[in-house]
UniProtKB/TrEMBL annotation:
Pfam families: Diphthami_syn_2, Ribonuc_L-PSP. Belongs to the Diphthine--ammonia ligase family. It comes from Rhynchospora pubera. One of its GO terms (biological process) is protein histidyl modification to diphthamide. Keywords: ATP-binding, Ligase, Nucleotide-binding. InterPro entries: Diphthami_syn_dom, DPH6/MJ0570, Rossmann-like_a/b/a_fold, RutC-like_sf, YjgF/YER057c/UK114. Pathway: Protein modification; peptidyl-diphthamide biosynthesis. This is Diphthine--ammonia ligase. Residues 1-225 form the Diphthamide synthase domain. SUPFAM superfamilies: Adenine nucleotide alpha hydrolases-like (SSF52402), YjgF-like (SSF55298). It is an enzyme of class 6 (ligase). Its EC number is 6.3.1.14.
Amino acid sequence: MKVVALVSGGKDSCFAMMRCIDYGHQIVALANLIPLDDSVDELDSYMYQTAGHQIIISYAECMGLPLFRRRIYGSTREHSVNYRMTPGDEVEDMYALLHEVKRQIPSVNAVSSGAIASDYQRMRVESVCSRLGLVSLAFLWKQDQITLLEEMIRRDIVAVTVKVAAIGLNPSEHLGRELKDLKLHLLKLNEKYGIHVCGEGGEYETLTLDCPLFHKARIFIDKYKGILDNPNSTIASVGVLHPLSFHLEQKDASYSTSHLPAVFEVEGNPTFTPSSSKPLDSEFDPDKGEQARNFRISSTGKNLLSIGCWIQNSSKTSNGLQEDLAAVLRQIELRLGAEGFGWVNVLYIHLYISDMKQFALANEVYVKYITSAECHFGVPSRSTIELPLVKCGLGGGYVEVLVAREPEKKKVLHVQSISCWAPSCIGPYSQATQYKGVLYMAGQLGFDPPTMNLRVGGPTAELEQALQNSEAVAKCFNTSIFTSTFLFVIYCSARLTSSEKIQVQEKLKSSFDSSDSPAFLYVLASDLPKGASVEVKPVIYAPGVEEETEELDVGKLRTPLENIFGKLQIDKTCYQLCNIKDKLLSCIVSITNTEASKICSQQDDSAFDFQCGSKKHMTIIATFCASIVAKTLCENGFSWNDLVILRFYYPTCLLLSADLMDCVFSEAFLDLARDDESIKFGKEPLFNLVPVIGSGQSAHMDDLITCELLASKL
């Protein structure tokens, strides 16, 4: 990509440029923001470093690149971490600056910044990039600071301190010192006081005088004066270096100073009109033919609920993925509104589409509904897979949303920048969402984060990378997928061979402690995004968020089991259950062909054929599944209102229509309610039937029916 680099003069922004080149990008321009008054060294800003700004104009000559500069007219007006366009805010000066860069150099498609740990800075850069259609590159993001410091020095970045403001850093002793000379001192301060060795806590700021990117010249400061902000402080004095004179020393004898790169002073404020999420283009109008569609809505749970929507189409045709998906999202939106909710309440979205080749088109529809403006507490996390929807008579799009009644309590991680940390989420979907003690992680592919390419080496290599990516995300919430995951879903591409599936399973099991491993669910999908072989989706117990403390009366939830369903038996190897402190319950039940035969033989003498299951046999299986759900909830002290997710995966090889499956399972749960008056179900199903190529608790994925259950009292 062609990159404009945001440069403050500090070591971080310069090293970020070097990382861009490492990954094959081209720096084509520099951009810098400076105070209104040249005599002012340091602004009171969490966003911009301005100390040493008087020298930045020389970067154009040192690198042989055009430099765009703008004075900072705004101030901090939007104080929240999640930035929204705010007239008069200092971020709008960055927007104006980069807008002009893009106008003059239309080929620019990315922006480099030196953000390491500040969400405040990163998210503002991402906001501006999103508005301008640019990609944010932040290759230092979340990297170990000691490693970064050592690498900067090793790779010949010559930087001096232009501000010190931390205990152990004395202006008279440490101002104007080279970074390499301060390294050992900074490491000692880190060990003694916990300071950030790269200055991410504001401990110090630097000015780069030379680096490998300065091909033409390097900078020498001839004279400066130190300015003390609070010289009488008993904790730490703040000192700023004010350059009085400097000069350049040419590196390239053939370089002519008569043709210096241009320096552009950017004035004025470009107009910006936020794009509207609606109305949709007529070519995929959600209302087109809506009355003719047979929408099905599912609703599960009370305090934390799941809503699903799909199109029941027995003719097994589709109006096209875009039109079907737009119609389904519109129905979800209407249902949310009817419940007093909006997209802001949505924590997670499962997006099932009929054709992964149309993934980009599906996203075009998706972003018309789910936007950062609509979701001001953070956009939902998401997983996307291709399923044989049309073949089963379910239209081109199928959506499930997990909805919270208190969206202000969710914590969302949405990193849009490409970095070395974990794959970026460029768009309105986040890496993970934490809500009331549970971390719902987006589906993770085996992307190499800095290149956003699938890791080479086959399915197990992709899985290993996906696990690394998931762990990087989990660490941001002070947890680990390897110790705290209670439900682990693995989507596998139908392209995998039998041996590759087994290798994936072995690799996954070896990554977890067998004594404390989560419940595993394997799903064989028609295809995955970007042609990936595997996609992983951990659900993690992360009690960092404040939980409810009121007493729970579980006694009233218990009912004599024989009054509900009599005696039920299933092989223990087909049943994975995790009960966390009687607050969270997850369960995977595998109804294999063998188990199905046993269940059916108790009520019917005819042999059960997996490949052509009859309605009669499926009715028996559905009744058994409904009973197992009731038994699981009851025996663990959970009510039907605690149920959050209930899915039944079934393989397309059953040759049973979606209409028939819907009818059979709906009747099974209605029968359950008729047998026990304490069970109350609404008019809509509380489950989702998901057609797949295969599913199960092992990589064989040969279940007849797989049940996935999640209940919560948090």
